[in-house]
Amino acid sequence: MNKRIRLATGSLAVSAAFLCMIGAASAATCGNGAGGFEAWKQQLAAEARGQGIGAAGISALMATHYNTATIAADRGMRSFHLSLDQFLVKRGAAAIVARGRSMKQSHAALFASIEQNYGVPPGPLIAIWGMETAFGSQHGNQSALSAIATLAYDCRRPEYFTDQLYAALKLVDRGLLSESTRGSMHGEIGQTQFLPKNILAYGTGNLDVAANALNSTANFLKAHGWRAGAGYQPGEANFAAIQAWNAATVYQQAIAQMGRQIDGR
User: pTM of the prediction?
Assistant: First the structure.
């Protein structure tokens, strides 16, 4: 390597390091209480503009509030530490299966269409639907944007939820989400509870409509490797797609078990 190349390479390295320092310095600072939330929003708004977020998205961000209920729920997710049997009882699995079998019959044409398009049978979709919102009856009543913004600001998982917040603001810019959108404690939306990044990637229409939510859920599972006709119990090919849906082991096992019972397998 000649001297000119070495100098150029060194200059590039210094420039890259300088840019990284600028990026680190400008990153919005997380916090563990409401005190810094308004200042954090100002910081994040500047970053969001750099990410291409438009005026509508920025306005929605600035309208968010720190949601103490979201933080309390995030710290109190104890059911995922139960045994499978305890979890099934706590989440009302027997009722989900019983109603799920009825829903499978009453929505037979819808589920046949979904299986034809995505290869996903009714059982796991109905189990997810029942588990997430009791078949659409419990969507949550939190400000979805404020819940996600609160978790993006919170120091526990800021990177993960900042990505979700950017996705939410993009949805606002597209007219698909608004300041008034209601969701669950972590900002999940619709009848099967999608976070914004998954809405962008896999959403098919208004997710408050059951058919759209179920198609979107099947689309997600297919995108995560679901193979038509393969099994979905632990150790079988399609269980990995259920694992992608939710990281909690006991939840994954519950969906597989309830899905099998609904499908009669």
Answer: 0.86
